[in-house]
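Researcher: Let's do a round of design. I'm pasting the structure tokens now; please hold your answer until I've finished.
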């Protein structure tokens, strides 16, 4: 019985997949925050290099992965596909459960799949400094790693609650050579404003984005790098799903259900978009399930509307499922999922009925993560625990219905830097944080007014 399905390096995908080429209805364009008109490439040049802007606006189905990027990817790619046989036995389910494991990367998550290309394209353009934000630290550590490879200075604004919760993730960033600053910080106007209003502000990804964007926009030698949400980031992650398709063929299996966690959407898009694209081109229809935290439920509770990607309203307006750019989620441990909005392309697929969404509580997700760790040996990141909870729920449904379906989920990273969260869970101290309904209502009431 084969447990791990490993691709030869020679079979690593040579192109990223762009789902825009296959959409039956094009997504709404991003808008300039001042004019409310569609963003032009020149509008993005203060933040991004031309190559990344071209990818952001690309419509072709395949975009070639440059060989220097593939050379770095060979450090950990192709990533393994694993059959979770012991988890199946523990659940006594007739379902087959597979997971695509991205925790084998140097930074321990899927995030280097985009960090390496972004760093390389910036280095090729002569850029020497990058600013970015991070929640739990997976993106920050990944960009720090990529910056070290290509000689870039990296400044990371880490959401304050995660900065305090995850000191070893911060240490990893600094080991790679990056500077890590708790957000909100006194270094930027956005940070100072937030601290003046609330000195003990826990931070949010929206606010950390504001700080990182401000640094890039006000310094000619610095560009901005984002770890999720934008089209080019989701594009880079599709190497995950493309590899999974080849590996599922090796396993002589085909998923009935594809599941991944969602915060900004990069990990979900990476696994799911190639499968959705196959359906859009006339292939088999599968259930594609996005699993998000109940404490920050942008897909299940958010409004599909134009909104800012950051709290200080420095970014373009994008049409997405949003809880409101001023919404501050409670400080739960899946810091990478604490974002007020969902990627526009993921939101668009939800509106088209091509994907579905679920929200689960923190304790349920940690229970699933502990079960998984005791069966399969891998301690998952809190973010990835949401995908596991989704997969467990589907496997138990199969058990109840007597159906031997095939489930594929994305294990986006390991939890070796998140053991304080597990200590809290195992000690009965983990709280299912809930957001303030009044704050959510106020944030949604403040959405920008966009003429039809």
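Researcher: That's everything. Go ahead.
Model: Designed sequence:
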């Amino acid at each position: 019985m084969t447990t791990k399905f490993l691709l030869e390096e020679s079979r690593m995908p040579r192109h990223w997949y762009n789902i825009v080429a296959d959409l039956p209805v094009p997504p709404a364009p991003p808008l300039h925050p001042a004019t409310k008109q569609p963003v032009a490439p020149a509008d993005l040049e203060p933040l991004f290099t031309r190559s990344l802007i071209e990818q952001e606006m690309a419509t072709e189905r395949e975009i070639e992965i440059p060989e220097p990027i593939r050379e770095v990817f060979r450090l950990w790619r192709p990533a393994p596909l694993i059959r979770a046989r012991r988890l199946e036995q523990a659940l006594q389910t007739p379902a087959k459960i597979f997971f695509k494991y991205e925790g084998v990367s140097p930074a321990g998550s899927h995030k280097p799949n985009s960090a390496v290309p972004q760093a390389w394209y910036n280095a090729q353009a002569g850029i020497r400094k990058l600013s970015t934000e991070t929640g739990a630290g997976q993106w920050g550590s990944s960009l720090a790693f990529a910056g070290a490879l290509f000689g870039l200075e990296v400044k990371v604004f880490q959401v304050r609650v995660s900065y305090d919760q995850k000191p070893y993730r911060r240490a990893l960033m600094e080991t790679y050579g990056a500077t890590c600053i708790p957000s909100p910080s006194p270094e930027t106007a956005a940070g100072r404003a937030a601290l003046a209003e609330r000195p003990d502000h826990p931070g949010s990804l929206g606010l950390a984005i504001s700080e990182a964007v401000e640094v890039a926009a006000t310094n000619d030698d610095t560009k901005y790098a984002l770890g999720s949400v934008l089209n080019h980031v989701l594009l880079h992650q599709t190497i995950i799903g493309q590899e999974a398709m080849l590996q599922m063929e090796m396993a002589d299996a085909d998923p009935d259900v594809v599941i991944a966690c969602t915060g900004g959407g990069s990990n979900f898009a990476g696994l799911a978009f190639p499968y959705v694209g196959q359906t859009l081109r006339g292939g088999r229809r599968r259930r594609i399930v996005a699993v998000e935290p109940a404490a920050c439920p942008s897909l299940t509770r958010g409004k599909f509307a134009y909104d800012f990607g950051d709290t200080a309203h420095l970014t373009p307006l994008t049409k997405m499922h949003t809880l409101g750019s001023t919404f501050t989620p409670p400080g739960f441990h899946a810091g990478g999922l604490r974002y007020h909005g969902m990627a526009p392309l993921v939101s668009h697929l939800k509106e088209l009925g091509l994907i579905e969404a679920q929200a689960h509580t923190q304790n349920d997700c940690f229970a699933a993560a502990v079960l998984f760790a005791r069966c399969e040996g891998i301690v998952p990141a809190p973010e990835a625990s949401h995908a596991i909870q989704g997969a467990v729920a589907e496997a138990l449904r199969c058990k109840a219905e007597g159906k031997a379906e095939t489930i594929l989920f994305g294990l986006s990273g390991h939890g070796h830097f998140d053991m304080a969260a597990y200590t809290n869970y195992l000690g009965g101290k983990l709280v299912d944080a809930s957001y303030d309904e009044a704050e959510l209502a106020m944030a949604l009431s403040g959405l920008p007014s966009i003429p039809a």
